[in-house]
From TrEMBL:
CDD domains, per the entry: PanK (cd02025)
Taxonomic superkingdom: Bacteria
Limits of the Phosphoribulokinase/uridine kinase domain: 96-249
Protein EC: 2.7.1.33
Main location: cytoplasm
Catalyzed reactions per annotation: (R)-pantothenate + ATP = (R)-4'-phosphopantothenate + ADP + H(+)
Name of the protein in question: Pantothenate kinase
Keywords annotated in UniProt: ATP-binding, Coenzyme A biosynthesis, Cytoplasm, Kinase, Nucleotide-binding, Transferase
Species of origin: Methylobacterium aerolatum
Pathway the protein takes part in: Cofactor biosynthesis; coenzyme A biosynthesis; CoA from (R)-pantothenate: step 1/5
GO-annotated molecular function: pantothenate kinase activity
UniProt record similarity statement: Belongs to the prokaryotic pantothenate kinase family.
Localization (cell): Cytoplasm
Residues reported in the UniProt entry to bind ATP: G101, S102, V103, A104, V105, G106, K107, S108
Length: 323
């Protein structure tokens, strides 16, 4: 069970969040235009994520409008600081949005839709999307350290490289590279990189983006990944639903990507259906569920915004942290 704690209704001044029903949140769209077409949505959504245009209109357009205000306010603060420091030539820094949540909750779809909407603002900002998958340690290193069954847990990431990447982006470097990851081969792609060049907005999506850093034994302070974020989103769902979505996605992948001869999971496309269901259940129960409970779900209260999905994958409520 992972019910959302009592965050308080919109008028509860004792809660750090203002909570909205889907209908209440949808009313905040105001005049934000719908710039995505049905064919755009089909291209952006992930397998087993039945998102609709209605969801875009009622959830993501209000969020896009809110972020437009936040980005404009941040830019205004930057200009005020420039004037104070008499440093008018200083480079404007990117606005970074973190996106967290469990495996199978729909982070990839949310990230792509949000990036597409933000890039369609009237002033056409440059928006980039990076996932933390590229910062997973290579499979060879994970295997050598006995960590293949811990892939996705905090210790399976090159956190130092992720922190350097975010530091360089937030410092205004014009071109910053991140390792490229392939879900087909389930590993980093040797020699391949994802280059981010002077974005106005960068969305960083991954399981681990809101997790606190682990202090080294010598007590040296190191930053959290989320220290570099201007705004953060946690995509939430009940663990029973997450389990069901994960298994359903696994079974659909048996009919699609797993059949590719290059797929790391090719062997699961050939086994009987009942055996495949047992494998999916085992992977969820022994890897993804413990990671959710131990490392991902505890970070939910660190997010600026919590989007909670119901059993149908539809976002049912929104909680916005008070400023």
């Amino acid at each position: 069970m992972n019910p959302l704690p009592n965050l308080g209704a919109g008028g509860d001044s004792l809660s750090p969040y203002r909570q909205f029903s889907r209908d209440e949140w949808a009313q905040l769209r105001a005049d934000a235009p719908l710039t995505l077409k049905a064919e755009d949505l089909e291209r952006l959504k992930s397998l087993n994520d039945p998102i609709s245009i209605e969801e875009v209109v009622e959830i993501y357009l209000p969020l896009s409008r809110l972020l437009s205000f936040y980005v404009a306010a941040t830019q205004g603060l930057f200009k005020a600081t420039q004037r104070f420091l008499m440093a008018e030539r200083e480079t404007k820094l990117p606005y970074i949005i973190g996106l967290a949540g469990s495996v199978a909750v729909g982070k990839s779809t949310t990230g792509r839709i949000l990036a597409a909407l933000l890039a369609r603002w009237p002033n056409t900002p440059k928006v980039d999307l990076v996932t933390t998958d590229g910062f997973l340690l290579p499979n060879a290193e994970l295997a050598a350290g006995g960590l293949m069954e811990r892939k996705g847990f905090p210790e399976s990431y090159d956190t130092a490289a992720l922190l350097r990447f975010l530091h360089d982006v937030k410092s205004g470097q014009k071109s910053v590279s991140a390792p490229l990851y392939s879900h087909l081969v389930y590993d980093r792609v040797p020699g391949e990189e994802r280059v981010v060049e002077s974005p106005d907005i960068l969305i960083v999506e991954g399981l681990n983006v809101l997790q606190p850093a682990r202090l080294p034994k010598d007590g040296t302070a190191i930053p959290f990944v989320s220290d570099f974020f201007d705004f953060s989103i946690y995509l939430d769902g009940h663990e029973d639903d997450l389990h069901r979505w994960y298994v359903t996605r696994f079974m659909r992948l048996r009919q699609t990507a797993f059949r590719d001869p290059r797929s790391y999971f090719r062997k699961y496309a050939e086994i009987p259906e009942a055996e495949a269901l047992a494998v999916a259940d085992r992977l969820w129960t022994t890897i993804n569920l413990p990671n959710l409970r131990e490392n991902i779900l505890p970070t939910r209260q660190r997010a600026s915004l919590i989007l909670t999905k119901g059993a149908s994958h539809r976002i049912e409520s929104v909680a916005l942290r008070r400023l």
